[in-house]
Amino acid sequence: MTGQVVDAVADPxxxxxxxxxxxxxxxxVVLPTDTVYGVAALVAEAAAVGDVFRRKGRDGAKPMAxxxxxxxxxxxxTDADLDVLVDLWPGPLTVVVHRAPGVELHLGPGAERLGxxxxxxxxxxxxxxxAAEVGPxxxxxxxxxxxxxxxxxxxxxxxxxxxxxxxxxxxxTGTPSxxxxxxxxxxxxxxxxxxxxxxxxxxxxxxGPR
Length: 210
What we know:
This protein is an alpha/beta fold. It has six helices and eleven strands. The chain has helices spanning about 10-25, 45-55, 70-75, 125-135, 155-160, 195-200; strands at about 5, 30, 40, 65, 95-100, 115-120, 135-140, 165-170, 180, 185-190, 205-210.
């Protein structure tokens, strides 16, 4: 299966089936999201997450985010109140929250000492279906660190070594997600992305100055 490119538009169910097998075998998968192409591994697979860091040349101090199927799946990972996200998820918003006690997530070498996690529920049916099947996914953009993320699936895979299962969802040309720290009161934007402060406020999420 390694190195195969699958048309996830023509056969999304088949693409999910293949990705499930790869992820459960402890291998990363390149997949489309509602913003950019990403590379994902199971949060329980420390070796697969480490492989992602190696392929990207990513700083080990910077943890990966977690993609979830829905708010219910996210709520199992945190004790934060996520009701405020009802009008923002699915969508291009990553929220930093405290981990729930006892939750173990492999998100990179520097993440073990952190008590927080970045969560996102993407507006992409295929990714949510995959997370619903295998659980939360440790995910980051499919590029070499410091380089732009390719908009085409094959180029995204090539940037990471070219030997991974690739779910081709067509061109991904979206703006990266906005990152908001919900551990602070008021919440704070850590990275401006697809949603600005006014869009967040309109949906009921008030953010303070950066």
